[in-house]
Amino acid sequence: MFDITGKHAIITGGAQGLGKAMVKGFHQAGVELAVIDISDEVFNLPELEVNDCKIHPIKGDLLDFDSIEKIFNEALEKLNGRVDILINSAGLIKRMPAKEFDIEVWNRIMSLNVLSVFELSKHAALKMKEQQAGKIINFGSIVSVIGAYHSSAYSASKGGVVQLTKSLSNEWAQYGIQVNAIAPGYMETTMNSDLKGDPVRKKQVDERIPAKRWGTPEDVCGVALFLSSPASDYVSGTLLPVDGGVLGR
Ligand SMILES: NC(=O)c1ccc[n+]([C@@H]2O[C@H](COP(=O)([O-])OP(=O)(O)OC[C@H]3O[C@@H](n4cnc5c(N)ncnc54)[C@H](O)[C@@H]3O)[C@@H](O)[C@H]2O)c1
């Protein structure tokens, strides 16, 4: 029920953070991977290989909408034309007061966090429809649900991811494609290093987490594996928090 051996997956933003933990976890689960990232670090990922399943690195900028189809096709080609799982993990955040936000930063955040997810999902769904099976996993956040502080564009984008996830599920669940989103809480990643480095904010966050610890990238990987496996074949259009209980408060 949880076996995904031999599946083919595309993971975006896999060069670091949550994406990298999923690259490791999915590789160990026997999945062949194409990993798309703007960072040169993506080329180091094959060093993680511990079995015969390949990790194919693809350097690409998902904010370059003239090239996004080409980037997707390169990933698909590496996977011999089959994609069973698409994980849209690449994301951007900028923390600053709303009145200081300039429109260019706003557009970059919305474009990567929502529009690139939409574009890649469309390309993947075409293949998945032919296969009558597929899993698409998007990345929301706890700020898809609660409002963020000093991250208005990010929060708006992550709210958008939830509605996009539901809308795509409404269209594609009939083809055996499950579209879901994960909502990580406060995770031990570089995305949160400034938050963790601020003693006042860190104390406020610590007090909000019922589990009494920040999440790890591996916490997220376990849920992504579930959402990629047959065990979740009747789960679609949902937002699954991985937040140590924060959204339950
Ligand atoms: N870390 C957290 O606490 C947290 C909490 C909630 C949601 N999330 C979401 O989870 C996802 C992963 O978060 P993370 O902490 O691993 O982030 P991260 O910043 O550590 O990694 C993001 C990755 O995306 C890549 N990337 C950035 N811009 C790109 C572009 N234009 N084209 C291609 N790749 C690009 C980066 O190079 C990086 O490898 C994101 O969508 C994030 O918003 C994270």
Write the layout of secondary structure elements.
Elements: E1 8-12, H1 17-28, E2 32-37, E3 55-59, H2 68-78, E4 85-88, H3 103-131, E5 134-139, H4 152-172, E6 177-184, H5 193-197, H6 199-208, H7 217-228, E7 239-242
Parallel strand pairs: 1-2, 1-4, 2-3, 4-5, 5-6, 6-7
Helix pairs in contact: 1-7, 3-4
Bound molecules: nicotinamide-adenine-dinucleotide (NAD).
The site of nicotinamide-adenine-dinucleotide has 26 residues, from helix 1.
Quick take:
The chain has 249 residues and is α/β, with parallel strands linked by helices.
Give the H and E element order. Answer: EHEEHEHEHEHHHE
* Residue runs with pLDDT of under 50 for 5 or more positions: none
Task: Report the C-alpha radius of gyration, rounded.
Answer: 17 Å
**Count of the domains:** 1
The percent range for strand residues is: 15-25%
Number of strands: 7
Order of strands in the sheet with most strands: 3-2-1-4-5-6-7
Provide an overview of this structure:
This protein has 249 residues and is α/β, with parallel strands linked by helices. The chain is 40% helix and 15% strand. It has a single domain (8-239), classed as Rossmann fold (3-Layer(aba) Sandwich), CATH 3.40.50. It has a 7-stranded parallel β-sheet with strand order 3-2-1-4-5-6-7, sandwiched between helices. The chain is globular and about 50 Å long.
